[in-house]
Design brief:
The protein is α/β, with parallel strands linked by helices. The chain contains 7 helices and 7 strands, in the order βαβαβαβααβββαα.
Length: 204
């Protein structure tokens, strides 16, 4: 199976994250996309408004319940911390030798890819799908238009692919701010997530 790996804090997950997953299924000929909820981004150790990892995982699972080919994963919770992508890839390859893993990252992260641990080994051994991302989303994930046309894929080499799709101005930061202001977030997240955020009084 070809598995897309979409990592991030998902603080919280929103509709654009789901759109990204469904887009990547077709654009990269994937069987599934795994949403790897990160316990802590190594480049953002001092984030102060990050929900508990189990809560973020719970919200992500709720959001993906109606998408059988999109899976929420706590895989990185069980790895040494901080959790670096290279380390995750090594463990996944060992635990799931039958799968082929494709890394999904935002254009902003690709620009600083040289700062990642063992980045050259990742470039040499894994396919990478890079998507555009607007500014302002501290989650490290993309904001894709929900009703986007078929994405244009540019293959720079056999392992690096640029997926060009329209952007939707949704960010995790925006959603957290709206919650704090008492504004409705249901246009931006699945209903199940909106109701759970309200029920648990998250981000207040």
């Amino acid at each position: 199976m070809r598995i897309g790996l979409f990592g991030g804090s998902f603080n919280p997950i929103h509709n654009a994250h789901i759109a990204l997953g469904t887009t990547m299924l077709s654009a990269m000929s994937l069987d599934e996309v795994w949403y790897l909820v990160s316990p802590r981004n190594p480049l953002k150790q001092h984030s102060t408004d990050l929900l508990d990892e189990e809560v973020r995982l719970h919200l992500t699972r709720l959001a993906l319940e109606d998408y059988p080919r999109l899976r929420a994963s706590d895989y990185e919770f069980h790895l040494p911390r901080p959790s670096y992508t290279w380390n995750t890839l090594q463990h996944l390859r060992q635990d799931y030798p039958q799968h082929e893993f494709i890394l999904i990252i935002g254009g902003d992260n690709y620009e600083k890819f040289h700062k990642w641990a063992h980045y050259q080994d990742i470039l040499d051994n894994y396919e990478i799908a890079v998507y555009p991302r607007s500014n302002g989303d501290d989650n490290g994930n993309g904001n894709l238009k929900l009703s986007n046309p078929k994405p244009q894929t540019s293959t720079l080499n056999s392992r690096l692919h640029i997926i060009n799709v329209p952007l939707l101005p949704i960010s995790s930061t925006m959603i957290r701010n709206k919650v704090r202001l008492g504004e409705d977030i249901r246009p931006y997240v699945p209903l199940k997530v909106a109701l759970e955020v309200e029920k648990l009084s998250l981000f207040r």
